[in-house]
Design goal:
The complex is a heterodimer of chains A (about 290) and B (about 400). Helices cover about 40% and strands about 20% of the residues of chain A. With about 290 residues, chain A is of the alpha/beta class. The chains are: A alpha/beta (about 290), B alpha/beta (about 400).
Amino acid sequence: MSDLKEIIDPGLLSTVTGDIAVGLDLGSRTGKGVLLAGGKLYTAITPTGVFMQETADKLLDKLLKQSRVARENIAYIVGTGYGRIALNFGVTGHKIVTEISCHAMGSHYLNAKVRSIVDIGGQDSKAIRVNPATGKVIEFIMNDKCAAGTGRFLEKVAHLLDLTLEQLGAEALKADAPADVSSQCVVFAESEVISLKAKGVSAANIAAGIHLATARRVRNLVNRIGLEPDLVFSGGVSNNPGMTHALEELLGHPISKVKLDTIFAGALGAAIFAQKAASSTDEELGDYALLKTK
Amino acid sequence: MSTVLTSEAQEQLNHIRYSRDTVHAHSPAIQKLFNLVIDYVDDAEKAGKNGTKVIWAGVPWAMPLIYSAGAIPVAFSEVGRISGQEAITVSEDYYQMPAETCSMVKATAGEWHLRKQAGTSITRIFGSSSGCEPYNLAWEVMKKEGFDVYTSDVVYRAPGVEGERYEELVRYFVDEIHDFNEWLTGSREIDKESLHREIVRKNYLMRRMREIMDLRLQHPFHVKSLGIMYLMNGLTHYFGKPEEYTEVLDALVEELSGLETDEAERQRAIPLIWTGGSGQEFGIYETIDDAGGSLLGFVSSPYTRDFPEDIDPVESVARFQLQSQMAGASIYRRHVIEQQVDRIQARGLILYGYLGCSFGSVTREIYRDYFHNKGIPSINLEGTFQVGAPSGQLLTRIKAFIEMLS
């Protein structure tokens, strides 16, 4: 639990209403939740299960327990992420918004100057350009049909190196000569990692090489839409220090420090959308027409 | 033979029925359209069995000529709707086509193979040559399978080709049309009276389509995305039944003309242009509708200008093609997209192509850049030619794109 004024960009604090709002981001690997109530921000995280609704309900329970808010007092819920499609919250007002819009809005509320976002999740990566006046998406690009440049790819490599995903990023920072990993395809990269291991290349150098290879893939995405400061790194991979380092090195641009773990950026954006939906009529939504009910 | 559908294609058929019976329950015209869609290939097969000349045809310019010869064209686009992974497996395993081969080529070749095994009555294929290397490979394979395959050369109009060079292209094209007629009917002589009648019919239908597209600006959600996609597809081949397709367009004009304008609906619609092939992953269309998008512009089958009626009909076919978006260079299609952007005040473009089509992907990038610089955002989608569920990521991209425009 944190005070909103410690987390939200001071320039936007006045736009946060008193409505109790929930954002749930059902990612392919983890579900994240944010609840806004009484000037406080509550977060919850849980592994994504087979049934999305169960994961969403579990997140909601955690948030309600933490905040001591009664379920019936929630004004609005916005669901987002890979598992958003099937979500239903009965009588509570709710809407589904894509993670692309939510990551943009969440990052905007963490740093109102943000113009570019790199979002790396479990199964895809995205580069997003944001309008700093509204938090709306101006342009985005997303990899699909391929696990390269995603958390799943890093997970696979961690497994090959006998490391946990959490250890992989830290290990990469110990590298003295990052290995040259040319393959972007997960299948080929696996063979490459095995052959590097056979040559006696250290786990740290292989890990660093893998992070650089993944970052190159993401850089290609970013280059397609152009990079403008400030830059926020969000999504499940954003708290991997090895990836942060590789991205900063390849993009030649620092990643903005914000006051919330940006794994929650999508859920925060969803909660902000939920507040806007709760406090506005369709006619009042203006820039946020995507929340219209009719 | 009656088409035997794989479970995925059956699911697609159910989607069409759902669109007919539920989504378009308010529109008898679109319901009739979907009936034509559903019966197209099976009825063509029956017609073939009963002695009518029926051919697989993947060349839009030839459709009026095929009808003028008393034959029925079955468009390649329909092969996509009835074929699934089984057809792809045939192409990849039996014909050893590399996995990265264009999904349209794999789906059509595989489906024809399966249909041949099942005793199809449609054993003649008319395609185009020199435009697409993977299809040239497919033509050779189909000949070996016992199909009678004919390909006509692609007459390509490069940017800025005018004057005598343009007239040369017309003459060459006219010659190609006669060659095709010889394959189709056994004679280079074309029944010009009959072709003229088909041109007059086509012009009438294109005018009707223009009326429909104008009326849709006032009623953007009356015909949903899947409906408009099939309406446009039908403008090329009439689903094998020109009179019935004409009735559909007439009825739809009447339907739309009788509606009261709903200003709120008009304001809510996000005007989009679809350009490129037809997506067979129908979930894409549903997502566009659900997100508040409306395909008010469509750049697929030409309909914005008429065939000349006061010249030799064969020459008219050639000139129409060479002055349309299908003339050759991508700039000709781009002009039409630009006109549509202005006409509907488009907020975004959907550029759609098939996986593995390198030609299409280059063109889409050219359009993306060009329109981006003019302030028109676009989304570049690649899907399979054969049926299949769209990936969640593809649907996310579409929904996010429309959210971005809202």
